[in-house]
Amino acid sequence: MIKLLRTDANNPDFKELIILLDAGLAITDGEDHTFYSQFNKVDHIKYVIIAYENSKAVACGAIKKYDENTMEVKRMFTSPESRGKGLASMILAELQNWAKEMDYKRCILETGIRQKEAVSLYNKTGFILIPNYGQYEGIENSICFEKTL
């Protein structure tokens, strides 16, 4: 049974999932990891979703304010043993619902071009490719998406 919990970045289960996420990204990103990790701090994230499967935290995602109308999706992760069950799609949908409840109009996000599963997730859930924004402008290994809520 899957349960989604709304929480914040202080949740210890979220912190444990982020350790796993960062370990995986360090491998996938290679030399680029230091650049990307500076934008993945969680100390100011107030909106986190954790998926629990049989009471075990197995996936997470977060949103943070980007501007007055926009939330940025951050820290999406599903543990390897729980992949392929639709958890990331469930979390992404709940994050969008939460953003809508707070009257935000769109969500944006950045992922790496080497994150093939992430790119596939965002494409299949209605996000559209946009020019790289903010700190990702001109970064060839980044790909950015948005979705109107």
Automatic annotation (TrEMBL):
One of its GO terms (molecular function) is N-acetyltransferase activity. CDD domains: NAT_SF (cd04301). The keyword Transferase applies. The keyword Transferase applies. Residues 1-149 form the N-acetyltransferase domain. Keywords: Transferase. This is Acetyltransferase (GNAT) domain-containing protein. It comes from Daejeonella rubra. The lineage of its organism: Bacteria, Pseudomonadati, Bacteroidota, Sphingobacteriia, Sphingobacteriales.
